[in-house]
From TrEMBL:
The active site is at 84, 142 (proton acceptor). Keywords: Cobalt, Hydrolase, Metal-binding. Transmembrane segments: none annotated. The keyword DNA-binding does not apply. It comes from the Bacteria. This is M20 family metallopeptidase.
Length: 380
């Protein structure tokens, strides 16, 4: 590990330069042109630092997905990272204040992607890749639930020896060994319009029906099991003096295991109208399976802990309420470890930032996960 750390310390300025270039290429998930431009910047960094070109999976509505492969044979390590962000262009700017670097998507998760590139470069330059096959899967729609990249990720990650997810660490720098599964549902409610003053009894209020459905959905929450059902968006009605004939609501679900996912899905899809004359149309389902804690993921974490000790840091394993693309690979039974990216705070918040002083250590941690012998030291 000594040679890796020394190499990264000598190239810290270039690592930060690459992070800056990628963050400046703003990439809101819903802006295909912007995301594809960011992808072009990422492709240039891969070619410059690792000498490899992208295999592009073109998309019509979302940004193109990018796959980078180093090595043709040997056990495969898959590195997952997304280059889309939740930020519209111009909302945040790249800046440095009091030793912290701020910017759109800098923590979630552009810094982590650059760290993974340099982790592999450090191994390559020090002659420690040793017949390994490294596959980077860089997708453009993770913040939307990976609608166009889910199957692509599963197809390309299948058969991997391990999957390393360079999503940001927790606020305290810990890794993520489990994540909740996520679901998205939409319920469209149809009622019957009527004049609110002259003949309200002839109408059927879709908004009133919606209120009953929200209360039913609330009953599905089970904090002891880690299950949450949140009605996050509601819409309805046309005029204040009209009995509403239409309403809709959007629901987010979070579960810790597959049995809870099945229970929640069954309960939501079996909802029935409360008011006579109203109708429900229910759409949606599970968008990401739970990333459940497993012996395989625990073994990966134990290796990460040993690497951390060598690097002089302490890490623990945490569970996260949010999902990532690592949920897909963990559900396949592939050993998956998440949270290997940058440290900082403010994910999806205006104060999103990274801590540059941890860049070398966190990059070395990723590199160590690809070594067969983490105690090896070539004396460099």
């Amino acid at each position: 590990m000594k040679s890796v750390v020394n190499y990264l310390q000598k190239h810290t300025d270039l690592i930060m330069e690459d992070i800056s270039d990628l963050v400046l290429a703003e990439s809101p998930s819903t802006d295909k042109a912007a995301v594809d431009h960011c992808g072009d910047v990422l492709k240039a960094i891969f070619e410059k630092r690792l000498g490899i070109q992208a295999e592009t999976e073109k998309q019509t509505h979302y940004g193109n997905q990018l796959k980078f492969v180093l090595g043709k044979e040997g056990p495969q390590t898959t590195i997952l990272g997304h280059f889309d962000t939740v930020w519209d262009k111009g909302v945040l700017s790249l800046r440095e204040e009091e030793g912290k670097w701020y910017g759109p998507g800098i923590l979630d998760m552009k810094a982590g992607m650059i760290q993974s590139i340099w982790a592999v470069r450090a191994l390559k330059e020090s002659g420690q890749l040793g017949g390994k096959r490294i596959v980077f899967l860089c997708n453009s729609d993770e913040e939307l639930g990976s609608p166009s990249s889910k199957e692509w990720i599963i197809r390309n990650a299948t058969g991997s020896e391990q999957v390393l997810v360079v999503e940001p660490a927790t606020t305290h720098g810990d890794l993520k060994i489990a994540r909740k599964g996520t679901g998205r549902y939409r319920i469209a409610i149809t009622g019957l319009a009527a004049h609110a003053g002259n003949n309200p009894g002839e109408g059927v209020s879709a908004i009133e029906e919606m209120a009953f459905q929200i209360l039913k959905l609330r009953e599905l929450n089970d904090p002891e099991r880690g299950t949450t059902v949140n009605v996050g968006i509601v819409r309805g009605g046309s005029r204040v003096n009209v009995v509403a004939d239409y309403a809709e609501l959007e629901i987010d679900t979070r579960v810790e295991n597959q049995s809870e996912a099945a229970r929640i899905h069954d309960a939501i899809t079996r909802l029935t109208p409360h008011l006579q004359g109203s109708q429900l149309r229910i759409e949606g389902g599970q968008t990401r399976p739970p990333m459940e804690r497993s012996s395989a993921s625990e073994q990966l974490f134990e290796k990460a802990q040993k690497i951390a000790e060598i690097l002089g840091i302490t890490i623990t394993a945490k569970s996260a309420g949010g999902g990532s693309d690592g949920n897909f690979t963990a559900a396949l039974g592939i050993p998956t470890l998440d949270g290997l990216g940058a440290t900082g705070a403010g994910i999806h918040a205006l104060h999103e930032h990274i801590l540059p002083e941890n860049i070398v250590t966190r990059t070395a941690l990723v590199a160590g996960m690809m070594l067969n012998d983490i105690n090896s030291d070539d004396g460099a």
